[in-house]
Amino acid sequence: MPKICEFVPGSQRRKIDVHAHVLPREIPDFEKKFGYGGFVRLDHKEDGSTHMIKDGKLFRVVEPNCFDTATRIQEMDKACVQVQCISTVPVMFNYAAKSEHTEEIARFVNDDLFSICKSHPDRLIPLGTLPMNDIRRAVEEVRRCVALGMKGFEIGSHVGEKSLDHRDFWPLYKECEKLGALLFVHPWDMDSWSGRLNKHWMPWLVGMPSETAQAICSALMGNLLVEFPKLKLCFAHGGGAYPSIAGRVNHGYKVRPDLCATECKVAPELLQKNLWVDSLAHNPQAIGLVADTFGKASLKSINL
Prior knowledge:
Number of strands: 13
Number of domains: 1
CATH class: Alpha Beta
Radius of gyration: 19 Å
Distance between the termini: 18 Å
Number of helices: 11
């Protein structure tokens, strides 16, 4: 299994779900508060469902397990999951908002995550969100949350036109490495998947795995793991499409160093074993490829 699937606190092994999204039960009307759109609010229905509304339109329908902790714990018990690392739904990143507003929303979400996890500290671990559109603010939020006990943070696969290897993000990586904080990278914002590709839910089915593969390539060839060798990077969905294209990426690095080795002099195949991924790959064959690409759980574990 991929390394992220087993954390080892002491000598006791536990089944941990690292990829579990939550929402606050009540979300302020940020559109009204800030004076512009792009924010999510919740509309709780009498049938027990909840509608996520964005810019006056239905974004998604979610069930009580998304915000009701008692329901979540019951479902964890049924699935024999001892611990969940809970993180927000990526639409709550709000990287396109004004940075002071993104920071305010991040603090609201993170405080809610803390509150949820305090009720079941042995079952729930918070992974916070950060105002990635302003790295100074993001670093400050990392420091605030780590001081309160948070162990890691969920970030998007890109911020606007900036991929994860952009130098603007390096102060964040330095701080997370220093504090031992995990960064869980989730694909999001597949706005480029429009026109003929915007059918059959392809932005999510195809775009998300591609987003994650691009983020991994950026981390590997952008010199992140050389500059920050102790940085803990975990990628969602079993690394997305990367396990399938890892051979192509490494071949490209060897035969076209003029294009691929411009920033990092260490081959991706030597660095990819230093990454973590979740096991959300949806079939056993894919899990085998994920394990072969990134390494097996018995080799290493993340301490959270």
